[in-house]
Amino acid sequence: MKELKINRVILTTDYKSYLEVKKIVEKYGLKPLLFNCIKIKRLKFKIPDKKYDWIFFTSKNAVRIFLNQSKWFLKGKKIAAIGPATLREIEKMAKRSCDYIPPDYNSVSFVKSFVSKYKFKKFNILFLTSDLTDDYIQNNFLKYGHHIDKIIVYRTIKPRHSDYRIKLLKKNIKNSFIIFSSSSSLYNFIDTVSLKLLKYPYIITMGIKTEKSLKKLGFKSFIKAKSSFEDIISKIRKITTTCSRK
């Protein structure tokens, strides 16, 4: 194994998420470096005048934006979250837990396990998401006879970076860890600094889609982990601790 910069973890998420993940990174004795490759833009939205049984959230950004505007709408409805980060945001903002979370934190598991658990029931579902979310969840729930309305509550855009930030990244990226939590952050990184730069760090992806996007580019994710920053950072800490003892 090539030399590791034990304290370096480069985070490519949006700034607000970075502030939260930064605490986890520092808790494990690692040093975070922000190179945000996505920016969240809130969108205006209107809730359809319908009666819903379930509300689906597949990101904590959707939770924040929806609950800041329409927390009252949760009353009397069940909530589903795609993973632990989304769940924690719901617990934090709504002061309640979820009624469903899949065993694996991805869209395929979300659909498969939900349909299996509630196979003899049909629901009206409100699905809050971003402009980059594909139609997999929506199409599959429609296929199984549910009614689902997909509402886009935010848009993901590429931020601009100063020459100083790019130079700082290039200076620190070699033999460091870099985490991509979405395909959009991966592609925005490449658009900003080039594909060639990915040969220097240990790349870690979160989620099946991001991993597939990385493979298409000819790279592999260094760590296989569930879609949770806590899980990934703890594994990085174990790896760096082991390497430092050799």
Question: Helices, strands, pairings?
Answer:
Layout: E1 8-11, H1 15-27, E2 31-34, E3 39-42, E4 54-57, H2 60-70, E5 78-81, H3 84-94, H4 107-117, E6 124-130, H5 136-143, E7 147-157, H6 163-172, E8 177-180, H7 183-193, E9 202-205, H8 208-216, H9 229-245
Parallel strand pairs: 1-2, 1-8, 4-5, 4-6, 6-7, 8-9
Antiparallel strand pairs: 3-7
Helix pairs in contact: 2-3, 4-5
Task: Describe the model.
Helix 7 links the parallel strand 8 and strand 9. The mean pLDDT is 90. This protein is an alpha/beta fold and 246 residues long. The chain starts with 7 loop residues before the first strand and ends with a helix. It folds into 2 domains: 115 residues, Rossmann fold (3-Layer(aba) Sandwich), CATH 3.40.50; 117 residues, Rossmann fold (3-Layer(aba) Sandwich), CATH 3.40.50. Helix 2 packs parallel to helix 3 and helix 4 packs parallel to helix 5. Strands 3-7-6-4-5 form a 5-stranded mixed beta sheet. Helices cover 41% and strands 19% of the residues.
